[in-house]
Design brief:
4-stranded antiparallel beta sheet; 4-stranded parallel beta sheet; alpha/beta; ABC_transptr_periplasmic_BD; Rossmann fold; 13 helices; signal; Iron complex transport system substrate-binding protein; 2 domains; transport; TAT_signal
Amino acid sequence: MSVLSRRSFLGTGALAASALALAACSGGSTTGGGPGGAGYPVTIPHAFGSTTIQSPPQRVATVSAANQDVAIALGVVPVVMPFFEYGGDAEGVLPWVRDALRGKEMPRIAGRALEPVAFEETAAAAPDLILATYSGLDRAQYDTLSRIAPVVAYPDAAYATSWQDQTRIAGRALGRTAEAEQLVVATQARLAAATREYPQLAGATFVYTGGMDSGQLGVFRPTDVRVRLLEDMGLRTAPFVEENAPAGDAVYYTVSGELLPRVQSDLLVGFFGSPDLDAAFRAEPAVATMPAVRADGYAPIVGADRVAASSSPSVLSIPWVLDDYLPILAEAATRSRR
């Protein structure tokens, strides 16, 4: 087995509308922070130390994935956000973001979500806060961004901030703590209500893969946010995943093809940007040896928008993808566990 590092790698409209309405009821602008200066300054700890925000932000920039979702759900339209080539439309805007911003001015687009930060374009937007709670910033990038505006980075590890923590941290930074908590509770309730319709998922074990990597199966560990989303739905990570994980905190590792018959689980969940990529994965001889595949428990998530929504989950993207995601999982669980 080998390891890759972390860095190598709303109905739907109703919740989006209610999220924006909730934030609007707070009395704050949809282009800036919360009302007045109550609660400021606020200091938020993160992986690079801590950041103190002296007053309610008025010009918020977001980098990487998911951060723009949370700001928008809280009623704060960023002044700048990245281009999403994977899952976005021709203008680089994700579909749930496009839905949530309908009728509003679109933020400036700067840089690409999964590439190095566009420092100059971000600085040109003159932000007074940069949200990066779900990102892969390194120390040098954080330091450079901090010379532009206060940066709220991830609390612990790169690309490992849960959708719940993303929302609560952003709520503190934007002066909308109560609204953030309400969004978390509403999203959890939406998840619970939706999964109750699929009792066959309760307790089903799964392995989550991104496909084959040089003849080896890529496996995501429970610390990965897409795995945690499935656990939020009542599924369980197959014991094999942690029992065979290498030492260290990497969220992803690979398993040799000859060992795949030992990868016991009810489901094999995979994500692929296109049907061709899914077909190529299915055609791998080693994949056919996996117990979940032999039991017809393969559950592919196909399409860049679905993959983006479920791989960087947020209070906007979860409701958007849920009605597509759950039936795929449930059908595979029904076949595998019959």
